[in-house]
Amino acid sequence: MASDEQLHPTALAERPENSPQKISLDITQIQAILPHRYPFLPIDRVIEMERMKRIVAIKNVTANEPFFSGHFPGYPIMPGVLMIEAMAQAGGALLLTEIPDRDKRLMVFTGIEKAKFRKPVTPGDQLRIEVEVLVWRTTAVKMQGRAFVGDKAACEATLSCQLVNRPA
After folding, report:
1. What per-residue string of b and e applies to 31-41 under the rule 16 or more CB within 10 Å gives b?
2. Residue 45 and residue 23 in contact, taking contact as beta carbons nearer than 8 Å
3. What percent of the chain has pLDDT over 90?
4. Which is catalytic among the residues 36, 45, 71, 119?
5. What's the topology of domain 5-165?
6. Active site includes 8?
7. What is the pLDDT at residue 100?
8. Sequence ranges of the domains in the chain
9. DSSP 128-142
């Protein structure tokens, strides 16, 4: 397989679908694709992406995360729903790179199935988010997401989402 490549997000949709190169994105490139911003952007970097098939992203979990002050005082644990959101946003980054007018569209959840939480995620952990496409349609995608800390599974779920027009 070819070496990793840094690629501007607007050029992603111009690449052949069967391109063998792995694509990585930094936070600035992720923000050019996703509409989410702090404190609701739970992916820091994309380290692998195969067009319309698979994405791997990283979330560096720090003690400065705003949710830790209340979840739970004295025993900080990343909320499971935020791990699911990280998987959805990683999948969204994969999906939205294929949409030329993504500034006029939003990706919204339509389903979360078979969610399982296997290991607490705490400050200092690095969450590796892996998302595989199960079904790809023009305006909807079904994905299998998994999140790991090291080699241990922390969370998994099957996610469905749909592209909708942004309100004017």
Report:
1. ebbbbbeeeeb
2. no
3. 77
4. 71
5. Thiol Ester Dehydrase; Chain A (3.10.129)
6. no
7. 87
8. 5-165
9. EEEEEEEEE-SSEEE
